[in-house]
Specification:
The chain has 281 residues and is α/β, with parallel strands linked by helices. The protein has helices at 36-64, 67-70, 72-81, 83-96, 100-116, 122-143, 166-170, 190-198, 209-212, 234-257, and strands at residues 2-5, 7-10, 13-20, 157-161, 177-182, 202-204, 218-222, 227-230, 262-263, 269-270.
């Protein structure tokens, strides 16, 4: 039995077999092109195909996660339509005479580096993941490679991945995906926020989960304390089953309080207001 520590991203406890969400090979070679217009047409088709994908994913996300969480895909589609982003890619194709894949990578890397350099703003740093997600989708269409479809999971599993993009997370079916664990990520990432909306346990930032786990291996995910138990003993399973029941009972008690009035000990009623500031990229 081994324990890995990560960042608790979504509360809850789950036990199931590991499902490895493996990303396809999106490698390519830089090449010199002679027909810039043809290459730009390839880019435009990939951008449109990616937009069509995102419309479907957004619909799934709105149904499973709610309209607010689905709005991240509006931002993704805005990136695909942003002339500053797409125009820079077209410019590289024309000026540098490089293939669309190379131009896309160079521009995306610049955008990602800009966001990641915002070390004083965790929210903006996380937007680098949006650029990576969008870029991966466009690149897959340029290369004719199919991305994994988490929506096809049809048995109870714990998803293991190096990272989960917002697109991946939006397609998770909470009926079958009992939790997920990743090598990288933080509590402010869209995937973590979506996990909390789905109310499934999630742990991110373990650094080594993909190399430490094999497909089909039984795991326990403690999303409360950020602990993953690999190859648990029967005693471990019994211990965490009891913790899961206690957590479920606590959630039920919290649910009862949701619509209760806020009253002080001496009987004075209070009105609480929550103001949400919506940040945009």
């Amino acid at each position: 039995m081994t324990r890995l520590q990560g960042i608790a991203a979504s509360d809850g406890i789950a036990t199931a077999k590991a499902y490895m969400l493996v990303q396809p090979d999106l490698s390519f070679s830089k090449s010199t092109i002679t027909d810039s217009e043809k290459e730009i047409n390839r880019l435009h088709k990939a951008l449109q195909d990616s937009t069509d994908d995102l419309k479907i994913i957004r619909k799934i996300a709105a149904e499973s996660l709610g309209e607010e969480e689905a709005q991240v895909f509006d931002a993704h589609m805005m990136i695909l339509a942003d002339p500053e982003f797409t125009g820079a890619i077209e410019g590289k194709i024309k000026d540098d005479k490089v293939n669309a894949e190379q131009a896309l990578k160079e521009v995306a890397d610049l955008f990602v580096a800009t966001f990641e350099a915002m070390t004083d703003n965790a929210y903006m740093q996380e937007r680098a993941a949006d650029i990576k997600d969008v870029t991966k989708r466009v690149l897959s269409h340029l290369l004719g490679v199919t991305l994994p479809n988490p929506a096809l999971i049809d048995e109870e599993v714990i998803v293991i991945a190096h990272d989960l993009t917002p697109s991946d997370t939006a397609q998770l079916n909470g009926k079958f995906v009992k939790a997920f664990v990743t090598d990288i990520g933080g509590r402010t990432s869209h995937s973590a926020i979506m996990a909390r909306s789905l109310e499934i346990p999630a742990i991110v930032g373990t650094e080594t989960i993909t190399s430490a786990v094999e497909a089909g291996e039984e795991l326990i995910v403690d999303g409360i304390n950020g602990v993953v138990v690999l190859d648990p003993t029967a005693a471990d399973v019994a211990e965490y089953d009891a913790k899961a029941k206690d957590f479920a009972a606590q959630k039920t008690e919290w649910e009862k309080l949701k619509n209760e009035k806020s009253v002080t000990k001496d009987g004075k009623a209070l009105q609480l207001q929550l103001i949400l500031a919506h940040l945009k990229i």
